[in-house]
Amino acid sequence: MTIFRPDHVPGEPPPADAVAPRDSSPDAPTSVARLNETIHGFVERWGSVWVEGEITSWNVRGGNVYGRIKDLGADAALSFRLWSSTLRRLPDLKVGDHVVACVKADYYVRGGDFTFTVSAMRHMGLGDQLERLERLRAQLRAEGLFDPARKKPIPFLPRCIGLITGEKSDAERDVHRNAELRWPQVRFRTAHAAVQGDRCVPETIGALKALDADPDVDVIIIARGGGDPQSLLGFSDERLLRAVAAASTPIVSAIGHENDHPLLDDVADLRASTPTDAAKRVVPDVAEQRALVAQLRARLTGRLTQRLSHDIAQLEQLRTRPALRSPESMVTSREHEIRMATARGRDIVERELDAATLRTAELRAGLRALSPGATLARGYAIALVDGDVIVRDAAQAPAGAQLVVTVGRGSLAALSEGEIVESADDER
């Protein structure tokens, strides 16, 4: 029982007659307040202490920081609180930084909570763990595992989605719920694996190989809810990263929250900020797709209607032209011109024919004048000896030579009496 007076105010020093913790017994137990006051007084005498370690947690709430510092060489850590007034005087710090901090132990009497308040903190460089991760990051980048050119595209509408996550985890429920809200017919093939601890890497690799070998799985999501960086280390393990890089199926990394960034995010084909984001980026929204189809259909209908209206207007415009409205007018309006052109053509042809006829008659007359038949018609004759030799000299037809004489009309046979000798009287 306690022996505090009824007028004692909690939080104030206990009265002098209260039972001290060292004097407590089953019959005279001390109070919780007395015990807490004793612990508080003991902790107050510690004062401030400088400690060295690696920041493993850094959460900002209401302007203040609540985090943890891990010992660099042992499996030990402490929680700390950093007021906003102190935070403004510090450099930019983050998880993984190697720091030294001036801390003062605080024990709250009312709640019995123990923490350390940071009054100063200095950046000493990268922590061992973060340094190892940065070396691995540089190595994988040099090998091209972060190269965007090797990233495989995510299918627009996967037939089946492979999901690697913790059994009965919030991440699994988030992915399923959001994917089914977006596309109710979505299919999953889920492989459960430990998402932290020593089993995380081998189980995740085994699940990845099983899903990657399944021909029905079009994309694989590796999902885990948020947590401190220490619990996410498995998703920066080199063995898992190389297994992801070697997979033939597109991989989506959905580890932690927006600020978490394991190396899996860099090696995976797509990085989602959360498991919910992964479901939204892998599965299309059926409502959006229906709206898009309706929009495209409306645009197509509008374009076709516009084109048909334009073509109908053009056709009507052509039909109203005089040439198409009354085609015979083209001939009627030019009938006189056609008649004149026809008459002019007939005159030209007749003149040409008359000139050609006259020229033909002239040529015929000239030919007749030069023709041997015309000469024979005037009384001349042609004598042939030996069948085809024209007699041009009387010596060619001696007496007794048989001649063929051709006259204007026909030929006759003759017998030569020889050359006729002319007398002087004949010459006269």
UniProtKB/TrEMBL annotation:
Residues 145-363 form the Exonuclease VII large subunit C-terminal domain. It is found in: Cytoplasm. It holds the Pfam family tRNA_anti_2. Its EC number is 3.1.11.6. Residues 1-30 are annotated as: Disordered. Its main location: cytoplasm. Keywords: Cytoplasm, Exonuclease, Hydrolase, Nuclease. InterPro entries: Exonuc_VII_L, Exonuc_VII_lsu_C, OB-fold_nuc-bd_dom. Residues 1-10 have a biased composition (Basic and acidic residues). Residues 31-122 form the OB-fold nucleic acid binding domain. It comes from the Bacteria. It catalyses: Exonucleolytic cleavage in either 5'- to 3'- or 3'- to 5'-direction to yield nucleoside 5'-phosphates. One of its GO terms (molecular function) is exodeoxyribonuclease VII activity. It is an enzyme of class 3 (hydrolase). Belongs to the XseA family. Heterooligomer composed of large and small subunits. Bidirectionally degrades single-stranded DNA into large acid-insoluble oligonucleotides, which are then degraded further into small acid-soluble oligonucleotides. PANTHER family: EXODEOXYRIBONUCLEASE 7 LARGE SUBUNIT (PTHR30008). NCBIfam families: xseA. This is Exodeoxyribonuclease 7 large subunit. It comes from Microbacterium rhizosphaerae. The gene is xseA.
